[in-house]
Amino acid sequence: MKIISFNVNGIRAAVKKGLHQSLEELNADVVCFQETKANTEQVREALFGTGYNVYSNSAEKAGYSGTSIASKQEPLRTFVNMGIEEHDREGRITGAEFDEFYLINVYVPNSGNGLSRLDYRKTWDDDFRNFLVELQKQKPVILCGDLNVAHTEMDIKNAKSNYNKTSGYTQVEIDGLTALLDEGFVDTFRYLHPDKVKYSWWSYRMNARARNIGWRLDYFIVSKSLLNRVKESFILNEVLGSDHCPVGITLS
Question: Which of 52, 55, 102, 107 is catalytic?
Answer without folding.
Answer: 107
